[in-house]
Specification:
The protein is mostly beta strands and about 850 residues long. It is about 0% helix and about 55% strand. It has a 32-stranded antiparallel β-sheet that branches. Strands 5-6-11-12-9-10 form a 6-stranded mixed β-sheet, with no helix packed on it. The radius of gyration is 27 Å and the shape is globular. The two termini are about 35 Å apart.
């Protein structure tokens, strides 16, 4: 099964501390909303008090001079706006530790190498290569054999050698990363939290924000991704657009070798599923071109059952509802991307890139609804069929200029990225009644929804060594536009005339512009400690337009975000890392939209303009070493949220539940994360990881009382890779997710098992057998329990799916036979070395 070979770069240690303050303003305005639902006011545009922002970042400090690592973090902002300040950061900073760097991989390919296999050699830090720095704009690390991998603020997991990468989506690849989970509906969580930002090469993308994220992750092919970086405690170079929480950074593949190479692949699966992709690169002289194209026909049919009791707060009497549903329909998706690089001269490089993805939203379904009152008498019994059509499209384009200065390590960069995402759907409904609800006349209806998001991001960065230190400064301007348009029509069954439903039709717009400046300074304290400080200043303008009611509101504010980071080198094989971050999670567009959005006959959704941002204090202490000849990592973490944005549901009539968001008194999460990766024997590699976690939430019930809920859980993954023959690799992976607190209840544990066989039929042709969810464990089960609501919900998805496929490579060097375990347990040559290394300051990758 695709695997994750996890090992952490033994780099020198650097300790960096951080403190931060922010300022914000407050504006408020109100307006009436739909009946029976929270007011549709533009609501309070709240600004919370100053936020302290702290974090830890670079893992590797240069031998004599720590290479600069970006600063990162969000700060206070008015409650109403999801801020869009994103950042980018280090791509390669030489380390002060051992010369070898273990790598975490999702698959097999290279024999393992222990730290003892390499000698420490002084290496002078080289200026960045333009193509290699594609991820630099974002505090990300491009994984390649000669570059360092992990940093103090992140772990890096290789995707390129995953045995199932040629068949998997990016959502599948994320599901193999420790402590990351992707639900069948596309919801991404990290350490149990849904507040996760996803970036591509260190840049925010409209395609991976909001409602379109799940569909686009399922449409993107995993073999276009080089590595996945997990940044649990983002530094000051990272903004908070798209969430403000931990970051998952997708580092795309880059090839800089002269000449051309290409590969094509195709896979066919059960139930008519299939996918195919082709990619290629060509480099000659000053030019470099690369691109890929893919098509996919995939998805999961599902069935669901929900049993719900509404409890009267006055009499305690119960009314009972049962909802059963079935959804069918596989989705078609296609994607294309390309990049061109041109070296103007020895110092200047230009790059242009573009991508486009499209995925259908077509499906059909039928839901049955039965309502029993307190007597008990069945007062409603009917079926509702639905047929949906629509598309999910996304695009991005951008350009970049890199200029190397007169001195070693001096670099100036300009970068422009524009991206957009559209979700459109048109659903037709028809009811068949056994027992018609009182006053219910409509038998047919239609719903048309459109969600449009646009992001434009411009950055400029400058860095240079000053004495034995590295100094860096940068500018960023980002503009985000959100437009949510929901329309609902009742249809006369005789005349087929459509009538607009005023309570289910609305339009909401949110515009945000952020301008930021930042600076960082990094130096070395002694042989074991290093330090880096930074400051970011952000100015934000926010505009809200409730088109349906004509209510507008605006706000602007300034934030100051300082930061500091650190690591400590315990021994030649062991590092101690500490991280602290103070982050701000701003409400998103759907969380702020006060209008009612129809979901189904028993469920509707509405936002809350009075939401305040969630402040998070996050601490982490990690230890990396060797155990039984394998790489071992242990991390303890603690996260405390104030004004936590939590989902809350309550009845607006006898059978309909409204889902909305409120600020809870607070929540907390703590845990112990661990991993072990390496060879159990020459042909057998183990990759194991786990998270022993405790989550606590304080929520307000329907009566306004504060209730505390807590749960303990154990989640983990175990991957075994066995080299059956020099040409054949067998992989199996067990993925178990523990109980997770969700809204006013929790999600039950789930377990899945995947199995993969990859055979090198020739040095250029690979054959693949991939079995996903072999034991049909794919399900989502939720339990809600409040003073007025008792609910059990279960949705099962088509489980076991089998694929057969192939991939053929053209041009380039003939690859060596695969070996079990991949590069994971082995160490990579380091770009820098220990205390005796070159005194030239290391290059500081770009922040944003």
């Amino acid at each position: 099964m695709p695997s994750i070979n996890y090992s952490i770069r033994r780099a020198s240690s650097v300790v960096l501390l951080c403190a931060s303050a922010s300022a914000s303003a407050q504006v408020s305005s109100t307006a009436a909303g739909p009946a029976g639902v929270p007011t549709a006011a533009s609501g309070a545009l709240r600004a919370n008090g100053p936020e302290t922002v702290r974090n830890v970042v670079p893992a590797d400090v240069p031998p004599v001079v720590p290479g600069a690592l970006p600063a990162a973090v969000p700060t206070t902002v008015p409650s109403i706006a999801p801020a869009i300040v994103s950042g980018t950061g280090p791509a390669d900073v030489p380390g002060t530790g051992p010369t070898t760097a273990p790598v975490t991989t999702l698959a097999a390919a290279v024999p393992a190498t222990t730290l003892a296999d390499k000698e420490e050699k002084p290496v002078k830090a080289d200026p960045p290569e333009p193509e290699a720095d594609a991820a630099a704009g974002m505090a990300s690390v491009t994984v390649s054999a000669e570059r360092p991998t992990n940093r103090i603020d992140r772990q890096v997991y290789d995707v390129k050698d995953d045995a199932a990468a040629s068949n998997a989506s990016v959502a599948d690849a994320l599901n193999k990363v420790p402590s990351v989970a992707v639900d069948p509906d596309g919801t991404v969580t990290l350490r149990g939290s849904t507040n996760v930002q996803i970036m591509v090469d260190g840049k925010p993308s409209a395609m991976l924000q909001g409602e379109s994220r799940g569909a686009n992750l399922a449409a993107m092919m995993a073999d276009s991704v080089e590595s996945i970086e997990v940044i649990n405690n983002p530094g000051a170079q990272f903004g908070t657009d798209g969430g403000g929480g931990p970051i998952l950074n997708l580092v795309t593949r880059r090839n800089r070798k002269p000449g051309g190479m290409a590969s094509v692949g195709a896979n066919g699966g059960t139930g008519g599923r299939y996918n195919s992709s082709a990619s290629g690169t060509y480099n000659e002289g000053p030019w470099g071109v690369q691109g890929s194209i893919n098509v996919r026909h995939d998805g999961r049919n599902s069935t669901g059952d929900t049993v719900r009791d509404r409890i009267s707060p006055f009499t305690g009497e119960r009314s009972h509802t049962v909802q059963r549903s079935r959804q069918e329909g596989l989705n078609d998706s296609a994607g294309i991307n390309g990049a061109v690089t041109y070296n103007l001269n020895a110092r200047d490089t230009l790059q242009a890139s573009a991508s486009y993805n499209a995925r259908s939203n077509d499906n059909s379904g039928i839901d049955s609804y039965v309502l029993t009152d307190t007597r008990p008498v069945v007062t409603s019994d009917y079926s509702r069929s639905s047929r949906r059509s629509g598309d999910n499209t996304g695009y991005s384009w951008g350009g970049r200029l890199d200029h190397k200065g007169d001195i070693d390590g001096e670099l100036f960069k300009l970068d422009l990225r524009v991206s957009g995402a559209d979700i459109s759907s048109n659903s037709a409904y028809a009811n068949t009644y056994n027992v018609r609800p009182a006053g219910r006349l409509d038998a047919q209806a239609r719903q048309a929804n459109l969600n449009d998001k646009r992001v434009a991001d411009f950055t400029a960065d400058y860095e240079r060594p000053v004495g034995q230190s590295m100094v860096k400064a940068g500018f960023k301007a980002v503009s985000t536009h959100n437009d949510i348009d929901a329309r609902y029509f009742d249809i006369n069954p005789q005349s087929q005339v459509e009538t607009v439903s005023s309570t289910r039709t609305n339009r909401f717009q949110l515009d945000e512009t952020i301008v930021a400046l930042y600076g960082t300074w990094q130096t070395r304290l002694n042989e074991r400690w290093g330090v880096m400080g930074g400051l970011r200043v952000e100015h934000t303008d926010l505009d809200i337009n409730q088109v349906t009611t004509g209510v507008r509101a605006s706000n602007s504010y300034v934030n100051y975000i300082p930061s500091l980071f650190a690591t400590y080198k315990v021994s030649s094989e062991s590092n101690l890392r500490f991280a602290y971050a103070n982050r701000l999670r701003r409400p998103g567009d759907y969380e702020l939209n006060p209008f009612v959005i129809y979901l189904d006959e028993f469920n509707v959704r509405s936002g809350n303009t009075k939401l305040k941002p969630t402040r998070t204090n996050s601490f982490e202490l990690g230890y990396e070493s060797r155990l039984f000849g394998m790489d071992a990592n242990l991390r303890g973490y603690y996260r405390k949220d104030s004004d936590a944005i939590l989902s809350r549901r309550y009845f607006i009539n006898q059978s309909v539940l409204l889902s909305t968001s409120d600020n809870g008194p607070g929540s907390a999460a703590s845990g112990l994360e661990f991993s072990l990766s390496g060879k159990l024997m020459p042909t057998l590699t183990l990759n194991a990881s786990g998270n022993l976690a405790r989550s606590e939430q304080r929520i307000l019930d329907d009566t306004g009382q504060s209730n505390r809920r807590a749960t303990n859980s154990l989640s983990g993954r175990v991957r075994l890779s066995y080299q059956l023959t020099p040409q054949t690799t067998v992989q199996s992976m067990l993925n178990a997710q523990g109980r997770t607190l969700v809204g006013q209840g929790y999600r039950e544990p789930t377990t899945t098992f995947n199995f993969t066989v990859r055979h090198a039929y020739t040095p250029r042709l690979d054959l693949l057998l991939d079995i996903q969810d072999a034991f049909n464990g794919n399900k989502m089960a939720f339990v809600s329990d409040t003073s007025t609501l008792k609910e059990n919900s279960l949705r099962r998805y088509d489980g076991r799916v089998m694929y057969l496929g192939m991939r053929y490579r053209f041009g380039g060097a003939t690859p060596p036979p695969r070996r079990a375990g991949g590069a994971g347990p082995g160490a990579r040559p380091d770009a820098g070395s220990g205390a005796g290394a070159s005194t030239a300051p290391a290059r500081m990758p770009g922040g944003r």
